[in-house]
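Raw record, unedited: dTDP-4-dehydro-6-deoxyglucose aminotransferase
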Amino acid sequence: MTTTATALPAALGGTPAFPDGLPLTVVRIPRREEVLGRIDAILADGRLTNGRTVAALEEEAAGLLDVPHVVAVSNCTSGLMLVLQALEVTGPVVMPGFTFSATAHAAVWAGSSPVFAECSADSLTLDPDHAAHTLRNVGGTAVMATHVYGTPCRVERLQQAADRSGVPLVYDAAHALGSRRAGVPVGGFGAAEVFSMSPTKVAPAGEGGLIATRNEALARTLRTARDYGNPGDYDCLFAGLNARMSELHAAVGLASLSGLTERVAHRGELAAVFAEEVKGLPGLRFPVVDEGDTSTFKDLTLVIDREEFGLDVPSLATALGAEGIDTRRYFHPPVHRQKAYRALGQADRLPLTDALSAAVLTVPLWSHMTAGTMRRTAAAVARIQDHADEVRAALLGGAHGPHQDVRPAVE
Ligand SMILES: *Cc1c(COP(=O)(O)O)cnc(C)c1O
């Protein structure tokens, strides 16, 4: 296969970088032998839920995250709901508008409501100053922050803000299984942190979530909460959920945890390869991961300054699509502007988040992607930027419009 880049981007008739297509992510499925032994044991044992495999996953995760308690749940959304319920948070929850919708949904399902705050322009994680400002001026009974793309939040200043207002701090750590803040694993910050093991995340179980906490009483309540609120004698203490993780999911999850540290390191190397390749390109930057921190790079997201880059995000996405490269606008629209939250009347409160949300584009990265694939992806972005004016003109209705079926001239 000849994939040598021609001078022209595919949007202008050049050879696509990936004629067969490059998906946004490819789930790393554990090898059969990593899973089958455990599945056989589950079937022999006859316990499909509430068994030894979930307990083993919890123990393994607690070791990896360096926290005393991990409670496995059916998914991250239910985990966040149960944490808010267990902390008796029923008032407004200060959270970023720049997050996945499930962060806000969890608050609503827990009987609370979101109060949206800005993210920091550099890191795209919840801005501690704006969170504090929102707590003081709008009010809030908890703070829920997201480690966006696996970038650890500025946890020290968020904790200060929460402490000053006397409210609990909870983390949506869906993206951050394997992230570190100044060398310390994400998982032990705030009152609790909730990870996702859904297929698009870094360590899939099929579906699943992990709640990490240093608080023993909270962990005990959460174990009851995921089991309908039943402490064991069917005299339910509160209205819990069925949010158990099944034994079969735990078997897959355990296999996904093995080698996670190495895979996270590889993802970081891939992100560095991309950054090196596009170094100096005008109008392109990356969310800042603080010096000494580790991100899982659950997503590799570009922040595009449309004036300097010469193209806006939809045009860049179309031009990358012509190269065969799949992209997503994570997160656009931001949650505070989604239809589900319009009635809150907070749509116009976050101008910075709006601008950043319009500027982000996520490009492909997965745990077993090669550096060569990453280099070719970055080269395609650079090629498009080199021809930004022509690409823009072409997309505005020229000979190589966005809807033209662009095929490689040579294969
Ligand atoms: C995926 C995701 C969730 C939801 O996780 P599930 O395990 O699918 O419930 C929550 N928050 C963020 C930031 C996510 O990306």
